[in-house]
Amino acid sequence: MSPPEGDLATPPLAQVFVYPARVKFLAVLADNPNESFSATELAEHAGTAASTWTSHRDDLLELELVDEIDTEGAYSEYSLAPTAHAQLLRQLSEDLDAVLYELNDPVSDAIGGFAQ
User: Fold this and answer.
1) Which domain of life is it from (predicted)?
2) Do 21 and 48 contact (CB within 8 A), yes or no?
3) Which residues contact 30 (CB under 8 A, 6 or more apart)?
4) At what angle do helices 20-31 and 50-62 cross, to 10 degrees?
């Protein structure tokens, strides 16, 4: 039985979380949804080798999580795809950023201290 179309808990995301490098690449793209990156820039921001991007690129394109943008230059650039799965990753990134901000916010810490 095939999973229902639009089910956000099925393969594209399952095929991301088993590879830490894929998570890193998608985190960079999700944190910068209006930007595109060359392969070199994306690998640099993700803290990986460019060859690591190359080994995962085709799968991420096929999973429709990343878009390849044909630029006028010699190299393509990559951005987060507008698909539901990719946008879920973007939303998760925003939610995690908000939680981390709250955890590091001194006012929240002070209020939390008074509540004990």
Assistant:
1) Archaea
2) yes
3) 80, 86, 89, 90, 92, 93
4) 80
